[in-house]
Design a protein that fits this description.
Blueprint (H helix, E strand, L loop, with lengths): L1 H15 L5 H44 L18 H19 L17 H34 L9 H16 L2 H23 L7 H38 L5 E2 L2 E2 L6 H12 L4 H18 L1 H6 L11 E6 L5 E6 L6 H8 L2 H22 L10 E6 L11 H14 L4 E7 L3 H10 L5 H4 L2 E3 L5 H8 L27 E5 L4 E8 L3 E9 L4 E9 L7 E9 L7 E7 L3 E8 L7 E11 H4 L1
Helix pairs in contact: 1-2, 2-14, 3-8, 3-9, 4-5, 4-6, 5-6, 8-9, 11-12, 12-13
Length: about 600
């Protein structure tokens, strides 16, 4: 903002003093720039003041919503522990699911029939026929004569008189082509006789077929057809019966690897998710479940899970890391990564890329559910989400549509999968906007959502997630490449009051090595380390000379000391120069000589 002011203000000054001398112009520019910078500084101070007020208000709201340091406590999924109304609702939902499966309501509708053939194709086929018509006129007489002969041969009980012309008819055709026109006319006249006889036969009432013919048909054709029918019945009867039996049995339907019906105890956990999402309104829960199953089939979840979407660049945007204090896996969303313009374009550059990003996000969630959640009644079946809004892209952008679409899909098809949603590094205006929306949220939803500004982000995270589980970038001590400490090595938290000093004593045995690491959020404190032997008259060894650590220092300080005699390592953190409370995180190990080797 200050830079924009610096660019716009000189331009305005030049218009006003365009006729003045160069020196006067320079002076006026400097005065205006200085005034603008002062104005910007005042605005920044005002924003910081508002942010601090928002932080205090946010801290009060959080304390009111959640008591203690534990994460959201999920309701029991054991049927025996459910209240009677909830147990009844679960039983009713099971009945509806079984009926829907039997009726095929979880199956996608059949694809629409193919469009009718275009009228142009028959027309194209008729064109060659029309072209061939003149050429076919010449043999037309032959075709008609043969058809008439076949008609006269059809009834077998006719006298042989009608057959003679039919046999002689082909003979009259050959001379008709070779003889003179007179012979052709005679042949044509002879051909008229069978036509007249055929017309007379058609006019007569149909005579019943003779018994002899019936017997022949029965022996020759009827018997063969009957045998074929019997053979077909024998061959087709077994598959047809199997198909009917298969159609009668309801098809097993799975969601997240859990059957919707049957004796699997995980089924209750899944169905209870949909019931809780709809406040145990059975019909609404059933509608939500059916819609979710059909969406999964249309979206092609199985294919998405197996797909290689080729987006390794997004590994730092959304990832799973550690667990909260109750054992829920934690998923981090770091939207500030999209400050990288190349990464932003790869994710949201066009419609195809946005669709791929959506599939990638759903794939990541599905894999997290399958790999990290347990749907058994006593298992962990939900997760904690941490969303970092620091340097996140503006709401208006190419990502807006896909973000809304993803949010809608998660709300409609993944009920009760979030135990807690923590927003960190939230701008003050975001917290103010949330206060306006808060009255419209249910108490259950509000109890899961936490907003905190940058100054309180780490402190808030530690209320729900232990520091050894929190990545370094968010104020914790977790590092992927740490060879000395792991998430199993607990971290101790120690508050440091303003204008005070704290010390940490680590007992050390003879012939051992002491290893430690510590972090003060925001630093701006003095830090030092020394070894003090237990023996009287021993000499104190300065391990780390006391010095002031600035805020931009390496976030974690590490140290080690090889001990030759019993004593203790003393770590000192002095907050004398600060008027703000600080938070110290530390952990250590004492390893024997054999372990050190």
């Amino acid at each position: 903002m200050a830079e924009e002011a610096k660019q716009e203000t000189p331009a305005a000054a030049e218009v006003v003093v365009v006729e003045k001398a160069d020196e006067v112009v320079a002076v006026e520019k400097a005065v205006e720039v200085e005034a603008e910078e002062k104005k910007v500084a005042e605005q920044e101070e005002e924003e910081e003041k508002k942010a601090e007020e928002a932080e205090e208000a946010a801290g009060g709201d959080e304390a009111a919503v959640i008591e203690g340091t534990g994460s959201f406590k999920e309701e029991s999924n054991l049927v025996s522990e459910l209240p009677d109304p909830e147990r009844t609702a679960l039983a009713q939902l099971k009945e509806l699911v079984a009926a829907a499966l039997a009726a095929g309501e979880f199956d996608l509708p059949p694809p629409p029939p193919p469009p009718p053939a275009k009228a142009e194709e028959p027309a194209k086929e008729e064109e060659p026929k029309a072209a061939e018509a003149p050429a076919a006129e010449e043999p037309k007489a032959e075709a008609e004569a043969e058809a008439e002969a076949a008609a006269t041969e059809e009834p077998k009980t006719e006298e042989p008189k009608a057959e003679a012309p039919a046999q002689e008819e082909p003979k009259t055709e050959e001379p008709a082509k070779e003889e003179e026109p007179k012979a052709a006319a005679a042949a044509a006249a002879a051909a008229e006789e069978p036509k007249a006889e055929a017309a007379a036969e058609e006019a007569k009432p149909a005579e019943p077929e003779t018994e002899e013919k019936t017997v022949v048909v029965t022996e020759d054709e009827g018997t063969s057809k009957t045998v074929e029918a019997i053979e077909e019945t024998v061959v087709v009867a077994a598959p047809a019966a199997a198909a009917e039996a298969e159609a009668a049995a309801p098809k097993e339907e799975l969601i997240w690897g859990v059957p919707l019906t049957g004796d699997d105890e995980r089924t209750d956990t899944v169905l209870l998710k949909f019931l809780r999402a709809r406040e145990f309104k059975v019909k609404e829960a059933m509608a939500m479940l059916k819609a979710a199953v059909l969406w999964r089939k249309r979206f092609g979840i199985d294919a998405v899970l197996a797909a290689d979407l080729g987006l390794p660049e997004l590994e730092n945007v959304v990832f799973y890391r550690g667990a909260d204090r109750e054992g829920h896996p934690v998923c981090y969303n770091v939207y500030g990564e999209f400050q990288d313009k190349d990464l932003y374009e790869k994710a949201f550059g066009d419609e195809e890329k946005r669709e791929r990003f959506l599939k990638w996000r759903i794939q990541l969630l599905e894999r997290g559910i399958l790999d990290q959640l347990d749907f058994s009644p006593s298992g962990i079946c939900s997760m904690v989400q941490v969303t970092d809004l620091k340097n996140s892209p503006p709401m208006l952008g190419k990502h807006r549509t896909v973000t809304r679409q993803a949010l809608a899909l998660l709300q409609d098809n993944y009920p009760e999968f979030i135990a807690k949603k923590i927003f960190i590094n939230v701008p003050w205006w975001y917290i103010a906007a949330n206060k306006m929306v808060s009255p419209f949220l249910t108490q259950r939803t509000k109890s899961k959502i936490i907003f905190c500004t940058a100054a309180k982000s780490a402190e808030t995270l530690f209320r729900y997630i232990a520091p050894e589980q929190v990545p370094v970038q968010f104020g914790g001590l977790y590092k992927e490449d740490d060879t000395e400490f792991s998430t199993s090595d607990a971290v101790t938290e120690l508050p440091i009051k303003p204008s005070s000093k704290e010390t940490v004593e680590i007992p050390a045995t003879e012939n051992s090595t002491v290893v430690w690491e510590l972090r003060v959020l925001g630093w701006e404190v003095s830090y030092g380390a020394e070894f003090t032997p237990d023996a009287e008259g021993g000499y104190t060894v300065i391990v780390q000379k006391t010095r002031k650590v600035p805020a931009n220092e390496e976030p974690i300080m590490k140290g080690s000391f090889k001990v030759g005699e019993p004593g203790k390592i003393v770590l000192t953190v002095d907050n004398a120069a600060s008027k703000k409370k600080k938070q110290l995180l530390y952990r250590f190990k004492v390893k024997s000589s054999s372990e050190s080797a």
